[in-house]
């Protein structure tokens, strides 16, 4: 039951759960298009305060969040947008399935979410994931590059290729720490504690401490430092790269300002020896010491490139670059996460996403459409192609 005709008709009501660092103007876009929006935060008064700060007082209804309270207000066809930490998604999705509501988030798909996808699909419900910045816009860039390269080189042609996708939220004005926290501090540290798998020199490589393979990377003439994160290998298939093409490099990773590796030396020592409790405490300490304050501006840089060399001599190179600085209205991170997510929710509302699991846009053609829509909404990026 995964075709559009079998999907539960969207009711027009959107429940946006969480008002943290990544909630931005995407919420305002939904207030413009949805019939009704409810913002769920820790308490109703804090939800009201958040709406006031975003200029949305009277345009969305504030609610105090508990899972039970949210579940009680869900109606068939509602859309729930979870901005809570990823471990919370499975419980919210279960409530959505129980109440016949659609679900959306910007996080990677977890095993606990995947387990519930068959039930959601059978009930005619959309489960939209990986629809933010990274993951999200990075997927769109990669799909579009792969689609253009396939047209230029040909699926049946033997070829080698290198695909790199690096994203980072960094200070617009560098500080000594080379970083300010513009999203969940614990998430930043725990990502560094997770092994990374990627393709280097034509072979799969696993590194237990990703920062130990940090290297220099030049983007548009500017030097950065980059390292791999998570598991890049499954995205070879997800991005639709032909089986006749062999990867020399395939890595999805994190981008940091030049000098970051040296500035974080003491943090790495803690990551090597600290237990979960110590790392959680460290995240709080660092967030308090290096926050993105009202006086600071953050910067998001997302650079995705693909270089293909065919056995017959044909070559193709392309790259996307998103380089955005926050302003007085919202951070760059909030804009780049919330606007793609809101766009995905609008596609649930208009009935153009099928029931079952969706990861942003999953084809080159659909990704081109998403990027055109995002460009119209102020998410600016540049495409360069060399043939």
UniProtKB/TrEMBL annotation:
One of its GO terms (molecular function) is saccharopine dehydrogenase (NADP+, L-glutamate-forming) activity. This is Saccharopine dehydrogenase family protein. Its EC number is 1.5.1.10. Signal peptide: none annotated. Residues 14-127 form the Saccharopine dehydrogenase NADP binding domain. One of its GO terms (biological process) is lysine biosynthetic process via aminoadipic acid. It comes from Streptomyces sp. R28. The lineage of its organism: Bacteria, Bacillati, Actinomycetota, Actinomycetes, Kitasatosporales. InterPro entries: AASS (IPR051168), NAD(P)-bd_dom_sf (IPR036291), Sacchrp_dh-like_C (IPR032095), Sacchrp_dh_NADP-bd (IPR005097). Residues 132-378 form the Saccharopine dehydrogenase-like C-terminal domain.
């Amino acid at each position: 039951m995964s075709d559009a005709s079998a999907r539960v008709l969207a009711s027009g009501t959107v429940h946006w759960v969480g008002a943290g660092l990544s909630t931005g103007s995407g919420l305002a876009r939904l207030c413009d298009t949805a019939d009704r929006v409810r913002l769920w935060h820790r308490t109703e008064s804090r939800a009201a305060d958040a709406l006031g700060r975003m200029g949305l007082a009277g345009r969305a209804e504030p609610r105090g969040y508990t899972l039970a309270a949210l579940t009680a207000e869900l109606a068939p066809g509602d859309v729930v947008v979870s901005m809570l930490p990823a471990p919370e998604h499975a419980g919210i999705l279960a409530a959505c399935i129980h109440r016949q509501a659609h679900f959306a988030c910007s996080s990677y798909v977890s095993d606990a979410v995947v387990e519930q996808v068959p039930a959601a699909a059978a009930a005619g419900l959309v489960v939209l994931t990986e629809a933010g910045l990274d993951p999200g816009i990075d997927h769109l860039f990669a799909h579009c590059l792969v689609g253009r390269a396939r047209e230029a080189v040909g699926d049946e042609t033997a070829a080698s290729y290198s695909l790199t996708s690096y994203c980072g939220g960094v200070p617009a004005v560098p500080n000594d720490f080379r970083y300010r926290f513009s999203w969940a501090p614990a998430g930043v540290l725990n990502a560094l504690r997770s092994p990374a798998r990627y393709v280097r020199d034509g072979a799969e490589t696993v590194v237990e401490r990703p920062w130990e393979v940090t290297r220099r990377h030049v983007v548009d003439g500017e030097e950065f430092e980059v390292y791999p994160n998570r598991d890049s290998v499954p995205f070879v298939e997800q991005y639709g790269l032909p089986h006749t093409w062999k990867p020399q490099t395939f890595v999805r990773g994190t981008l940091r300002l030049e000098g970051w590796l040296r500035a974080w030396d003491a943090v790495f020592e803690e990551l090597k020896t600290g237990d979960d409790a110590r790392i959680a405490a460290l995240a709080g300490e660092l967030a308090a010491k290096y926050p993105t304050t009202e006086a600071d501006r953050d910067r998001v840089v997302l650079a995705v490139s693909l270089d293909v060399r065919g056995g017959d001599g044909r070559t193709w190179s392309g790259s996307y670059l998103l380089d955005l600085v926050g302003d007085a209205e919202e951070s760059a991170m909030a804009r780049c996460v919330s606007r793609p997510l809101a766009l995905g929710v609008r596609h649930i509302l208009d009935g153009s996403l099928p029931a079952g699991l969706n990861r942003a846009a999953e084809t080159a053609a659909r990704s081109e459409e998403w990027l055109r829509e995002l460009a119209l909404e102020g998410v600016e990026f540049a495409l360069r192609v060399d043939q």
